[in-house]
## 1
Amino acid sequence: MSPKRLIASTVVAGLLAIALLSLSASASGIYPGGTTGNDIGYPQCGNGYPAFQSFGLVGVTAGRAFTHNSCLASEFGWANSVATPASLYMNINGAFGSTAPKGNSGPAGTCRRGDKSCIAYNYGYNAASDSYTWAWSQGASAQQWWLDVETANSWWPQASLNQRVIQGALDFFAQKGLVLGIYSTNYQWHSLMGAYSPGLPVWYATAADQTTASSYCSTAFNFAGGGVWLVQYIANGSDADYACP
């Protein structure tokens, strides 16, 4: 690693540590332990929103990186109507399909043909930047962001390349002084990322119901290494979330 890259990585790590320390008063960050909330996104566009609880999370993307939830402004207003600050989440995936060229250049430089590591990092960083820019344009801002990592989206068979996508997104949000977490499950995360544990909080998907949600707050489900902060479950046909104590 060059001296410039080493310095940049140190700065990013420091920014992330400061952001996480600022939330250390609660085991679940900004979410009051033991409370429940809801998450909504593009599927709820044009439909009624859940009856509000203690906190809300809103999707910025429309299922994949570089897509946009057209109802973000309205949904963010719903989530931002209580004392606990609203959170935002975005879908992330590998550089495939029509958006694949968006990884060709970025903070890792202009990638040579076939340099998948370079492309993967740029793609993750640029996808995070795109979601952040769309959110700001819709009047949605949050200290807490989440990456939605699912096997239903396109990824490389090599965990090392998928890790580069996550690292690119992580570095973008750290540079903004924001806190990042991962929404996924043990199976999906390890299938895509192997043993990678970036020290990020976990939003675990999905418990059967509120009664069983608290059982997912254990270290057995801490796949990203930063502790389980939220557990998602279904209540009255909507996505609900339990904040771990």
## 2
Amino acid sequence: MKGVSAVIVALAALAYTWFTGIFSSLTATTETAVTETTGAMATQFRIEAAKYIGSNHMNATIRNTGTQAFNVSKSTVYVAGSSASLDTTNPFNPGGNLAPGDTSTLYNITNTTEACGKALTVIIATGLSDTKTIVC
């Protein structure tokens, strides 16, 4: 009977170690998910202006209306549903984080079609988007 007790104790210790590892992993994963979700919920922005400047080029001013900064350079831009490009060689284009309450202008957004009067959509890294009609 002594051999059976040792096996039961060993199995109990193994099960405890395994469950402790599982719960630690789940707790860490859940904590990360909650932090990311809370951050995404605190991130808000709006396009304040979108202006056509000629030759299928436009500028857009965006404002961080949330409580958390976000990286403007990780934004994606569309004009009338088609992907547009941002001139990253322009020294005035933003890079890095846009603090809450601050504005930033995206310069020289380029599209392959006539942009005047079309919808400009900006999507930030969290997936949040805003759309504004491009003023001529």
## 3
Amino acid sequence: MSATPNTISFLLPAISLWRREVIRFVRQRSRVIGALGTPVVFWLLIGSGLRDSFRLPTAGEARPTMNFLEYSFPGTLVLIVLFTAIFSTISIIEDRREGFLQAVIAAPVRRTAIVLGKVMGSTTLALLQALLFLMLAPLSGIPLTLGSVLALAVVLTIVGVGLSALGFLIAWPMESTQGFHAVMNLFLIPMWLLSGAFFPASGASRWLTWVMTVNPLTYGVAAVRYALYIGRENATTAPSPTVSIAVTIGFAAVMIVLAGRVAAAKG
């Protein structure tokens, strides 16, 4: 079945924006270093510093405890996705200031195609960088299998779509990068910290446990953790795999819808 003209007119600008995002990101090496290097350094320094003082009990007798370097690895993967979403969607503000965004909006292009192109580009970059970091998994003590890598790629793609669409939703109405950074520091980073990436909910105070329960990223981190340990015992008190995947998919879908509505309502 051949594609209809309406389908082509929708996909072509989305693919063009996706390609532009990828090329632009690769050419700006500072963004690559910021999105990948910062989480890696964070994981190595904090993980190594707390390696022997953090012990999470496991269910298996062969490996009774888990150190912090291993526990924080799934959360660092999500942090890389989050940083990539931030650096990618902040370009919306730059595009508006440079006049590129106005030209795209003035063109006969559906706003949903703009959302799709930006989110696709950000998600692609996030997945590639997360998979690069995945090569360090043996340093954390997590053995990788083909099944875990494939499952992880699927989960990270869903998480990337949700976080990229959230970044789009925040960046679209903003006029300055300073405002975006303020939102990042006050909302996005705490959202990651209270997702079970840095410490388990079982040891937190009651109000923090409640915040972590309603935090959608908690379920994304749990889904990543389950994907890494697929077929093996996993030291976590996180929600079940079914609930984690369902909430992660639901969060991504809601963010895409909201991003599309914001783009359609505000130029």
